[in-house]
Amino acid sequence: MIQGIPCYVWYLSDKQERQVIFQKLEEALSLIKKYAPVRFAQLKKHNKQILVAGDPTFLGMNIYQLRLIEIYFKHAISEQTNAELLASVIVHETTHARLADLGFEYSEENKYRIETLCHRSELVFGLLLPNGQQIIDEAHSWLNGTIQYSYSAEGRQDTLIRAVEELETPKWFNNLFRKHIQRKINAQKSKQAPQDGYFTQRVSTKFILVSIFILAAFILFNWYFEK
Known about the structure:
With 227 residues, this protein is α/β, with parallel strands linked by helices. It is 69% helix and 7% strand. It has a four-stranded mixed sheet. Strand 3 and strand 4 (68-72) form a beta hairpin. Helix 1 crosses helix 4 (83-101). Residues 192-204 have low confidence and may be disordered.
């Protein structure tokens, strides 16, 4: 429990790494509570828990049904991610939860508007912090064009490919994955029907799970023969 919010780390991490992450979460939540008390109140109202896990397809995600904010483990543990940056992810995902509670559905036609509002909430948060310039700069970058690309089919393609490669899966699997995604995008373009949501859900669910399974098999194999 950190600042009254249940926080968990679920990943192949050791005790020292978990301590680092919990310390960062403590600092991040303290920053929100001190400099953006309204955002902190929204966090406690619209979310019940924070989970740091191993899904590499995003830095942060709001799982509305569980009232859960999920943060990518490697982003949280990275030396490049300070407490301010971690706090900005929490603020972003809290805004998602708040908008969902207000009845804004995350549909294809609404997603750019919703993501814009979430990145603006990061910008405002950065302006409130004594050391928020990096958050301000990144928010401006997103608002000035990155959103349109990152949430398009091509942007999701790049994200998913990087995510699979980050899992250290075999090169042949990465090539197969890349070709499959490209076929999906080409099929969508030929039909002239925007299906980003369908593309993301089907591809990420199927192939990310397979890649995680392969990675887990490699880890168990190495562990068995190193005993």
